[in-house]
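To the wet lab folks,

You asked to see what we're planning to order before we commit. Fair enough. Below is the target structure as tokens, and below that is the sequence we designed to fit it. If anything looks off to you, flag it before the synthesis order goes out.
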């Protein structure tokens, strides 16, 4: 049984995102796979998705609802999972077979996207990563022991993990794309060209804005003075996959 996990807290993403993620996983796996959603609100989530409380982590109030919460999964026992587990953010679109994420570099205890905006710097993007439960508990322990020191040193959780973890492997570059950073045509061509989906892409991540439904419909929520460059044409292939 392959285990995929996700996390949903607060109001940024609705249960629709969890259900859509599960639907995409089912269409893009050939082996038995389960999805566990760790959440503070399971209402509206499909009954086929396993729901569990968010793993406990003590964080200063200013980051309590930021992705720093994901460091909780590096605890010795984050709750009901073991072995190699695939974490997927909710704001992604699965466009290809994801069984390969479980098979790639099986000796590695941490496989992650090489961050698109920091190539060559060793920073991973944790929209899609596979980790071995219990393998790097010092990441969790250090944050619990001295959170203010870590927060003052690292701008975000994925930089903290990337700079601190003792072993990491990057996915093949073509597997994971960023809608905004690798697929969206550069200004001003984004006004006349529709973003294309490259072959061999397995996951498209929608970091920040636009969200998948917004990009699908050609909408980008931004202040008026940024709309001169924050623009996306309606993107039909998103509707094909994000459902």
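Sequence we intend to order:
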């Amino acid at each position: 049984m392959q285990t995929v996990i996700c996390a949903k807290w607060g109001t940024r993403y609705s249960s629709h995102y969890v259900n859509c993620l599960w639907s995409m996983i089912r269409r893009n796996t050939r082996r038995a796979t389960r999805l566990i959603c760790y959440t503070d609100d399971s209402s509206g989530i499909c009954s086929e998705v396993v729901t569990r409380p968010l793993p406990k982590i003590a964080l200063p109030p200013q980051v309590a609802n930021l992705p720093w919460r994901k460091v909780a999964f590096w605890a010795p026992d984050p709750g009901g999972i073991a072995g190699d587990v695939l974490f997927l953010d909710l704001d992604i679109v699965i466009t290809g077979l994801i069984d390969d994420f479980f098979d790639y570099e099986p000796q590695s205890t941490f496989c992650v996207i090489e961050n698109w905006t920091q190539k060559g710097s060793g920073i991973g993007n944790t929209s899609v990563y596979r980790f071995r439960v219990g393998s790097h508990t010092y990441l969790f322990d250090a944050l619990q022991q001295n959170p203010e020191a870590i927060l003052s040193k690292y701008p975000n959780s994925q930089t903290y993990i990337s700079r601190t973890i003792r072993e990491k492997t990057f996915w093949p570059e073509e597997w994971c794309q960023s809608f905004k950073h690798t697929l969206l045509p550069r200004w001003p061509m984004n006004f006349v060209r529709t973003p294309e989906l490259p072959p061999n892409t397995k996951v498209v991540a929608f970091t920040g804005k636009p969200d998948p439904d917004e990009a699908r419909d050609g909408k980008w929520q931004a202040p008026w003075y940024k709309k001169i460059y924050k623009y996306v044409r309606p993107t039909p292939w998103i509707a094909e996959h994000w459902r």
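Structural context that might help your review: The longest helix spans residues 15-27. The longest strand covers residues 124-132.

Thanks,
Computational group
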